[in-house]
């Protein structure tokens, strides 16, 4: 039986005066086909918090409500002996209560509906709203509002009704305090677009199977990705990478195409540029940003390469890790 990630947050002060949440993971059965979020580390506490680099979240657009034509995740599930019965429709949902947020500890890990959590994405976790769905969240203390895509389960505290991404919490003005009194309202995407005076954009159906990778030339830097009819929101999940096995005993040439290291993937282009600048000042390998479209949303991937030898690739990985700039992953060229 697979497990879905669960967050339990207890907020405290960070060194950089940013409040954060302290979390632990607890196992939870899910329906067959649910994601495995990572190692079984739920038996010990882990610290969660804000990213070490500051980003202007005012430049991150809200999620754009889009009709969902596939299946939704609304099956009952049990956590710590309590069974939850998700709703099949979020459009008329309204609730008032306490919101929390989660950050770096879960960045890149699988959410309850199989996406990867992006702390810069405009997303949220809810115990019973269908996955995916869209909500408007209002901070009752300052009147700020955001529109979010619900793609995860939690928070499993009785006094909290919703868990927001770090970017969403910062836009609402409570990233430093940890929690806020909010009003949550479900959104009907069709009604939302009608209120904008615009038709609902056509969305291409997602392929049911992933095609086998074909040989491709080395990737080039992409300044922007094409979009159709509207500006997409930030990517709600990170793209999967293709791992490449390295024989540590060899240090030969990897061929004309070389290898690439992916250090990070971000919905926010500012975060990608900041990491690119930091890497450029410490490594000799080329550093570039490759932007791709995933589910009608743009993802900005920070990569190193091409790398000529396996030994050089290993040295770059070690250097980046020691500088605390990420966990580089070897990827094949796009």
UniProtKB/TrEMBL annotation:
<comment type="function">
    <text>Lytic transglycosylase with a strong preference for naked glycan strands that lack stem peptides.</text>
</comment>
<keyword id="KW-0456">Lyase</keyword>
<keyword id="KW-0732">Signal</keyword>
<dbReference type="InterPro" id="IPR009009">
    <property type="entry name" value="RlpA-like_DPBB"/>
</dbReference>
<keyword id="KW-0472">Membrane</keyword>
<dbReference type="GO" id="GO:0008932">
    <property type="term" value="F:lytic endotransglycosylase activity"/>
</dbReference>
<keyword id="KW-0961">Cell wall biogenesis/degradation</keyword>
<protein>
    <recommendedName>
        <fullName>Endolytic peptidoglycan transglycosylase RlpA</fullName>
        <ecNumber>4.2.2.-</ecNumber>
    </recommendedName>
</protein>
<dbReference type="InterPro" id="IPR012997">
    <property type="entry name" value="RplA"/>
</dbReference>
<dbReference type="InterPro" id="IPR036680">
    <property type="entry name" value="SPOR-like_sf"/>
</dbReference>
<keyword id="KW-0564">Palmitate</keyword>
<dbReference type="GO" id="GO:0000270">
    <property type="term" value="P:peptidoglycan metabolic process"/>
</dbReference>
<feature type="domain" description="SPOR">
    <location>
        <begin position="253"/>
        <end position="334"/>
    </location>
</feature>
<feature type="signal peptide">
    <location>
        <begin position="1"/>
        <end position="27"/>
    </location>
</feature>
<dbReference type="InterPro" id="IPR036908">
    <property type="entry name" value="RlpA-like_sf"/>
</dbReference>
<dbReference type="GO" id="GO:0071555">
    <property type="term" value="P:cell wall organization"/>
</dbReference>
<dbReference type="Pfam" id="PF05036">
    <property type="entry name" value="SPOR"/>
</dbReference>
<dbReference type="GO" id="GO:0005886">
    <property type="term" value="C:plasma membrane"/>
</dbReference>
<dbReference type="GO" id="GO:0009279">
    <property type="term" value="C:cell outer membrane"/>
</dbReference>
<dbReference type="GO" id="GO:0042834">
    <property type="term" value="F:peptidoglycan binding"/>
</dbReference>
<comment type="similarity">
    <text>Belongs to the RlpA family.</text>
</comment>
<dbReference type="InterPro" id="IPR007730">
    <property type="entry name" value="SPOR-like_dom"/>
</dbReference>
<dbReference type="InterPro" id="IPR034718">
    <property type="entry name" value="RlpA"/>
</dbReference>
<keyword id="KW-0449">Lipoprotein</keyword>
<keyword id="KW-1003">Cell membrane</keyword>
<dbReference type="Pfam" id="PF03330">
    <property type="entry name" value="DPBB_1"/>
</dbReference>
């Amino acid at each position: 039986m697979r497990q879905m990630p669960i967050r339990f947050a207890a907020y405290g002060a960070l060194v950089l005066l940013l409040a954060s949440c302290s979390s632990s993971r607890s196992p939870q059965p899910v329906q067959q086909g649910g994601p495995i979020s990572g190692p079984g580390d739920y038996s010990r506490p882990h610290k969660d918090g804000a990213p070490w680099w500051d980003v202007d979240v005012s430049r991150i657009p809200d999620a754009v409500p889009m009709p969902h034509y596939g299946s939704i995740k609304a099956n009952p599930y049990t956590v710590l002996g309590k069974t939850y019965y998700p709703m099949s429709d979020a459009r008329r949902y309204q609730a008032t209560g306490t919101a929390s947020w989660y950050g770096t500890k879960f960045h890149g890990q699988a959410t309850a509906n199989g996406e990867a959590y992006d702390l810069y994405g405009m997303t949220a976790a809810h115990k019973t709203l269908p996955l995916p769905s869209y909500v408007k969240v209002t901070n009752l203390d300052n009147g700020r509002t955001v529109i979010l895509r619900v793609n995860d389960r939690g928070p499993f505290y009785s006094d909290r009704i919703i868990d927001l991404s770090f970017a969403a919490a910062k836009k609402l003005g409570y990233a430093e305090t940890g929690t806020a009194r909010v009003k949550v309202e479900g959104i009907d995407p069709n009604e939302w677009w009608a209120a904008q005076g615009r038709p609902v954009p056509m969305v291409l159906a997602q392929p049911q199977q992933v095609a086998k990778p074909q040989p491709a030339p080395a990737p080039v830097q992409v300044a922007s990705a094409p979009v159709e009819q509207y500006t997409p929101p930030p990517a709600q999940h990170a793209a999967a990478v293709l791992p490449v096995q390295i024989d540590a005993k060899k240090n030969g040439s990897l061929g004309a195409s070389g290898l690439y290291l992916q250090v990070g993937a971000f919905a926010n282009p500012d975060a990608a540029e900041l990491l690119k600048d930091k890497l450029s000042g410490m490594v000799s390998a080329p550093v570039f940003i490759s932007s791709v479209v995933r589910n009608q949303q743009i993802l900005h991937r920070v990569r190193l390469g091409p790398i000529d030898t396996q030994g050089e690739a290993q040295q770059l990985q070690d250097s980046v890790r020691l500088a605390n700039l990420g966990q580089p992953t070897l990827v094949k060229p796009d």
